[in-house]
Amino acid sequence: MIVAGLRLLARLPLSWLHCAGAALGWLAYWLSPSYAARLRENLHASGVCGDEAQCREMLRAAVAEAGKGVTELAAVWFGEDEKVARLVVQCENWGVVDNARSRSNGIIFLTPHIGCFEISALYVAQRVPLTVLYRPPKLGWIEPLMIAGRSRWQMVVAPANLRGVRLLYKALARGEAIGLLPDQAPGVGEGAWADFFGRPAYTMTLVKRLQQASSAALIMTFAERLPGGRGYRLSFEELTTHDLDESALNRAVEAQVRRCPEQYLWSYNRYKTPAGAEPPPAKSKVESRKSKVS
């Protein structure tokens, strides 16, 4: 029943879904004080706003964009293949992907929580075999929808556990591509503390381990929502570093966020301490003074 309903919604114009999503975003903002507080705190603390007026404007946009990220899933996950393929109306720098494929060491696509990260993976999977890592949602009924929506074209989904990680290593060993959300908070023992927009965030170490084991290319990508439901603009950028530690990874994500800050998922609890993990080391007074000056 749920899938059938979502397939019906997928027939609606993307502009309608985005309008409904903007309303949903504000409904969630007003009904959940904790959600609203986290979104405001993360946005203001990031420093991406030039002044208070710009922060207010960006906050309004971010609230609406977060809601669009929910309602657009109907079109992205359950639309007909031909219609989904047409959602990306502009692609920048696909040539870096072709160049990386010619080296035959595999590709690690890094897709932060910016814009429509779901369409980014589907666009790639239309063209190359892609294994994507996903964390099962807390609400169990959502997982079958997630798997069904992502399992098309050449995409394989891998759960965020030992079996799933092995699938990633095997895909890279075959010279194929994999996809990760680099700003997703990992579980205890799977990350290290590194600054993200000036605050310590528990950051996955998996990207570094995968790249060191395979010498795979690292390509950052995100799909920007275009106004009026016109579709998405997809961009690709290869990271040239060969030692992408957690700090460098966060800086790379920050650079992408600054390109389109209003479409970043600021409500995501990026700075939480995973259960059982040691809290981040306290900054010394000297470091604190330096961070305030900078």
Describe the protein in words.
This protein has 294 residues and is α/β, with parallel strands linked by helices. It has one domain. The protein is 48% helix and 18% strand. It has 13 helices and 9 strands. The protein has helices at residues 2-9, 14-31, 33-46, 52-71, 73-78, 81-85, 95-102, 117-125, 142-150, 162-173, 206-214, 246-259, 285-293, and strands spanning 88-92, 107-110, 130-134, 155-159, 177-180, 191-196, 199-204, 217-225, 232-239. β3, α9 (142-150) and β4 form a beta-alpha-beta unit. α2 (14-31) crosses α4 and α3 crosses α4. The chain is globular, with a radius of gyration of 19 Å. Residues 284-294 have low confidence and may be disordered.
List the defining traits of the structure above.
294 residues, alpha/beta, 9 strands, 48% helix
User: How many discrete domains?
Assistant: 1
Give me the Rg, rounded: 19 Å
Q: How are strands sequenced across the largest beta sheet?
A: 1-9-8-2-5-3-4
Shape: globular
- H/E element sequence: HHHHHHEHEHEHEHEEEHEEHH
Number of strands: 9
Query: Approximately how much helix is present in the residues?
Result: 40-55%
Please summarize the sheet with the most strands: 7 strands, mixed
Mean pLDDT: 93
Task: Kindly estimate the percentage of residues that lie in beta strands according to DSSP.
Answer: 15-25%
Low-confidence stretches: 284-294
Number of helices: 13
Look at the helices and sheets and give the structural class. Answer: alpha/beta
